[in-house]
Specification:
Layout lengths: L9 H19 L7 H8 L17 H16 L4 H11 L8 H11 L26 H5 L6 H11 L7 H17 L10 H10 L4 H15 L4 H8 L9 H10 L4 H10 L4 H16 L6 H6 L7 H15 L1
Bound molecules: magnesium ion.
The site of magnesium ion has 6 residues, from α3 and α14.
């Protein structure tokens, strides 16, 4: 057990970050694209893996890219943009539910394209999508929370092959900042979630992201009903419509990681990605041992399954300790 100077089991926090993302992804995948009402009518709450196209407990593109990113960090002892890109391209399995833009870029990278030129292949200004934020959590694990300017630079480099638009980079940066901070925090009662969201808002370069994260802070401080907050914050694939929602739900249920992930799945829309990002954040705070055993038991096995995710998380923790 690796104890950091913060007096916590940092290895368990790293495993919680990676598995929290995978659990959220696998729980949310079957209801991706559903409305919150449709999910409620069919399942009440999604508390367990349900059967879906890939099978119950199978993860999607979110976790595949997160695993690839994590492995690249272990290989390079930090962020190397070219290796982050090639690692994602190597692991790319089109069956895992990738979007059109990611598919085109990953195929181009496989064909030898330069990762510094691929992000604007389909959109001249770069994608607004949440594909950067969904895979960035491993980068957050490598940083002490006060190294914020270095973290922003490394986040931007880690996602450069697919995302260069400030909205997408802001979203990835905030997920990484949350993981960096919470993975080293002894007790969730030691911070004010509303203040923390306001601070995150101030870190954004993009005006719309700054406003939406600020709205998340307001909704949390006013104790607005979760369903109404999700309507206002959004549940779409755009970064502003999903990262603030995931952070809001993580902080709204910061004392209960299981419920945070269940509520994120219940948000519907891009449910797998919202729950993956929320899962990474609450997993960073609480560690893997705090997440339900049934989610550990039911996640897919195999070469790049549960054990591989644990392994890369432990290797990431060893880069720090
Ligand atoms: Mg997905």
């Amino acid at each position: 057990m690796a104890m950091s100077q913060h007096g916590i089991d940092f290895t368990d926090r790293c495993v919680g970050t990676i598995l929290g993302a995978a659990f959220g992804d696998a729980l949310g995948a079957p209801v991706e694209g559903w409305t919150p009402d449709a999910i409620r009518n069919e399942f009440g709450e999604v508390r367990d893996y349900v059967e879906a196209r890939l099978g119950a407990g199978c993860y999607t593109d979110d976790t595949q890219m997160l695993l690839a990113t994590g492995r690249s960090l272990v290989r390079c002892h930090g962020v190397d943009g070219a290796v982050c890109a090639s690692s994602c391209a190597e692991l790319f399995d089109p069956d895992r539910g990738y979007g059109r833009s990611a598919t085109a870029i990953l195929n181009a990278l496989r064909d030898g394209a330069d990762y510094r030129e691929t992000a604007t292949m389909l959109f001249p200004g770069g994608s607004f999508g949440n594909g950067a934020a969904m895979r960035i959590a491993p980068v957050g694990l490598l940083f002490e929370p006060d190294d914020i300017s270095d973290l922003r630079r490394d986040v931007a480099e880690a996602v450069r092959a697919t995302h260069t638009h400030p909205e997408a980079v802001d979203g990835a940066f905030l997920v990484a900042v949350a993981v960096a901070g919470l993975s080293r925090m002894a007790d969730y009662r030691s911070f004010d979630p509303v203040e923390r969201l306001r601070q995150y808002s101030s870190l954004c370069h993009d005006d719309q992201m700054r406003a939406r994260v600020g709205l998340a802070a307001d909704l949390l401080s006013k104790k607005v009903k979760v369903d109404d907050a999700v309507v206002q914050l959004g549940n779409g694939v755009r970064t502003i419509d999903s990262v603030p929602t995931a952070l809001y739900l993580a902080f709204r249920y910061i004392d209960d990681p299981e419920q945070a992930i269940i509520e994120s799945v219940g948000a519907g829309g891009d449910a797998d990605t919202i729950a993956a990002m929320c899962g990474a954040v609450v997993g960073a705070m609480h560690g893997a041992e705090a997440l339900p055993q049934r989610w550990h038991d039911g996640l897919e096995r195999g070469e790049d399954g549960y054990d591989a995710l644990r392994e890369v998380a432990v290797q990431l923790s060893e880069l720090i300790t």
